């Protein structure tokens, strides 16, 4: 497991989250000033300097539940609110999109180009906000400094760590199903044709060398695919042609997107329902998570501007139906951890949780479940 994986996972999932929110804000005809405020607030929180410092420290990946909690907080960093069903759908779309991108990366190193594609698109959302643009550029520089000198083997370990994280996720997504890149069981279809990784040749020739490094035999074979040599390597500079299209915004064309749990995922969830008893490592993970999300600056809304609810479904009825049919095993339950021996840690965690309180928001009916913030408040 690579200890350099978390920043890439967080930034790419965050990029996918912003793509989806931007599409839904436009689809629901949210006024432009409100939509810009939502995206600006989320991006500013996501790229906060203190938060990035914690994120880039070498560390193991968090569990899916812990990471999901971070995105719950991030999605509610502005005046927008999502209910449980919409947050579930948002997270499913984020994770499946990035899983697909990691699977299709021609080279392990190209996961960095995927990350840069996300950052390039994020900068497009905040062109009128130079302060936030500077935050994103600083993160780009950190990525270049930390990952620019890694070997191919280190990138392979990062890619393998990401695939292990995603291996049990098989949510069907309508865009992928329509494009025939995902099967009905939620697994992706890997192409056997297309552009080759940069620096490689078209398959079809086996060369044998002797112990002196001299070529002694050539054998040709039919590869059965239709391969194209990469025209050039994608740019790893601040501005440049990434060449690779993975990580760009697939929602730029307005297309309805639905998600469905595959049968395999439902069976897996039923078989692996987590015990109520806390994991022995849970306290340590909680401490790490507290440090990470403690770096987020959740801005309290100023003035009388009202909040609004965003729906990830076409209608409210679809959203309510999704909430009713969601398997119970997949709801994110709270693990209560008694850590009374460390008074200072408890006080620090309480302070961090207190900073996440967002007050002065108009509350809607409980049936809509507008407020997910109670998830962390109950820790």
From TrEMBL:
Pfam families: Oscp1. It comes from the Eukaryota. This is Organic solute carrier partner 1. InterPro entries: OSCP1. The lineage of its organism: Eukaryota, Metazoa, Chordata, Craniata, Vertebrata. One of its GO terms (cellular component) is plasma membrane. The gene is OSCP1. Signal peptide: none annotated.
């Amino acid at each position: 497991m690579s200890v350099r994986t978390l920043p890439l996972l967080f930034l790419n999932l965050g990029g996918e989250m912003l793509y989806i929110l931007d599409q839904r804000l436009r689809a629901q005809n949210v006024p432009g000033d409100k939509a810009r405020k939502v995206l600006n607030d989320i991006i500013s929180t996501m790229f906060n300097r203190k938060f990035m410092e914690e994120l880039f420290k070498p560390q193991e990946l968090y569990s899916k539940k812990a990471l999901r909690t971070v995105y719950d907080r991030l999605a509610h960093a502005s005046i927008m609110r999502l209910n449980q069903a919409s947050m579930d759908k948002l997270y499913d779309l984020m994770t499946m999109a990035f899983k697909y991108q990691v699977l299709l990366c021609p080279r392990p190193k190209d996961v960095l180009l995927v990350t840069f594609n996300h950052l390039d698109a994020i900068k497009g959302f905040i062109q009128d906000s130079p302060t936030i643009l500077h935050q994103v550029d600083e993160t780009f520089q950190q990525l270049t400094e930390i990952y620019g000198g890694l070997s191919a083997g280190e990138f392979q370990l990062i890619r393998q760590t990401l695939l292990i994280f995603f291996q049990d996720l098989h949510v069907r997504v309508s865009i992928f199903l329509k494009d025939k890149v995902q099967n009905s069981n939620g697994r992706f279809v890997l192409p056997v044709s297309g552009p080759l990784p940069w620096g490689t040749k078209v398959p079809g020739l086996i060369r044998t060398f002797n112990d002196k490094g001299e070529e002694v035999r050539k054998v040709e074979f039919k590869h059965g695919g239709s391969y194209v040599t990469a025209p050039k390597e994608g740019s790893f500079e601040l501005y440049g042609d990434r060449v690779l299209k993975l990580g760009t915004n697939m929602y730029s064309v307005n297309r309805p997107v639905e998600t469905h749990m595959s049968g395999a995922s439902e069976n897996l969830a039923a078989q692996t329902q987590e015990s109520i008893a806390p994991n022995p490592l849970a306290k340590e993970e909680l401490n790490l998570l507290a440090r990470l999300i403690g770096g987020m600056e959740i801005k309290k809304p100023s003035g009388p501007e009202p909040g609004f609810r965003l729906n990830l479904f076409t209608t409210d009825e679809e959203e309510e139906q999704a909430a009713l049919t969601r398997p119970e095993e997949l709801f994110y339950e709270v693990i209560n951890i008694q850590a009374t021996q460390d008074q200072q840690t408890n006080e620090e965690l309480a302070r961090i949780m207190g900073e996440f309180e967002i007050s002065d928001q108009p509350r809607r009916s409980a049936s809509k479940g507008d407020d997910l913030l109670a998830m962390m408040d109950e820790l």
